[in-house]
């Protein structure tokens, strides 16, 4: 995640000057004169700062508020989302960012619309990272989740090589999510959500071979965007920082 992390302690009312990587992170978050953003100091505390001035090599910020606890969850959630139709991907990115997801990987599954099909109607994919940045600004998060480049189903699985709990939503034969979470206390979760119509049995078989556990959210059939946001919310409540 791109976040403004400083190597000095901060205090409310203090004006600071930043250069190098913190300045690059500020620019990545769309910072400009008058912008307000969340910064993390050398002690790990999060503060709110307003950009007073901004030049090519330096920015000054006035620290005006602090948070009693971190704005970033201790739980790392990587969302693997099959591309849904229309503008639902933008909605998923926005809400997943607000809920504290760490990374979003859009991918093509057998039943999902392709990016080419969707883009032929209205170009939006090039703005996915911008959607996440705006959601960070609105939710006052310190870090921006990375939205990876749209990829194939198998390419998406290449992002899941590190240790962590791997779950895939499958309404047919999945275990109850509650029961699965009782068995694990991970710090990283890979969560795969299919498109309208869900993943195929072949796809589920492939991800099971990669260590994914099929889970379901009750007996009702949820839309792709509802399933993704509900899943992230439950994970953050049970294992993360929602209280």
Could you walk me through the main structural features you see in this protein, from its secondary elements to its overall organization?
With 243 residues, the protein is α/β, with parallel strands linked by helices. It folds into two domains: 2-66, Hypothetical PUA domain-like, domain 1 (Ribosomal Protein L25, Chain P), CATH 2.40.240; 76-239, Alpha/beta knot (3-Layer(aba) Sandwich). The protein contains eight helices and 14 strands. The chain has helices at residues 20-28, 88-98, 115-119, 128-139, 153-157, 177-183, 201-209, 224-239; strands at residues 2-5, 15-18, 36-40, 46-54, 59-66, 76-82, 103-108, 143-144, 146-147, 151-152, 165-169, 175-176, 188-193, 213-216. The strands form two sheets. Strands 6, 7, 9, 10, 11, 12, 13 and 14 form an eight-stranded parallel beta sheet that branches. The chain has a six-stranded mixed beta sheet with strand order 2-5-4-3-1-8, with helices on both faces. A hairpin with a 5-residue loop joins strand 3 and strand 4 (46-54).
């Amino acid at each position: 995640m791109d976040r403004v992390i400083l190597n000095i302690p901060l205090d409310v009312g203090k004006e600071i000057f930043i250069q190098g990587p913190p300045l690059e992170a500020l620019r990545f978050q769309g910072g400009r004169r008058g912008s307000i953003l969340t910064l993390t100091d050398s002690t790990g505390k999060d503060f709110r700062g307003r950009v007073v001035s901004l030049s090519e090599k330096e920015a000054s910020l006035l620290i005006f508020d602090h948070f009693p606890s971190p704005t970033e969850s201790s739980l790392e959630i990587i969302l693997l989302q099959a591309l849904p139709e229309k503008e639902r991907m933008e909605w998923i990115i926005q809400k997943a960012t607000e809920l504290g997801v760490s990374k979003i990987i859009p991918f093509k599954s057998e039943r999902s619309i392709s990016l080419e099909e969707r883009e032929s109607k209205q170009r939006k994919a090039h703005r996915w990272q911008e959607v996440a940045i705006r959601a960070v600004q609105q939710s006052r998060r310190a870090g921006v989740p990375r939205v990876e480049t749209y990829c194939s189903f198998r390419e998406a699985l290449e992002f899941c090589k590190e240790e962590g709990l791997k779950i895939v939503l499958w309404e047919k034969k999945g275990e109850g999510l509650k029961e699965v979470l009782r068995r694990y206390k991970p710090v990283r979760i890979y969560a795969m959500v299919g498109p309208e119509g869900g993943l195929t049995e072949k796809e589920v078989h492939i991800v099971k071979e990669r260590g994914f556990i099929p889970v379901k959210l009750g007996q009702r059939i949820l839309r792709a965007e509802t399933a993704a946001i509900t899943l992230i919310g439950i994970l953050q409540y049970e294992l993360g920082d929602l209280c």
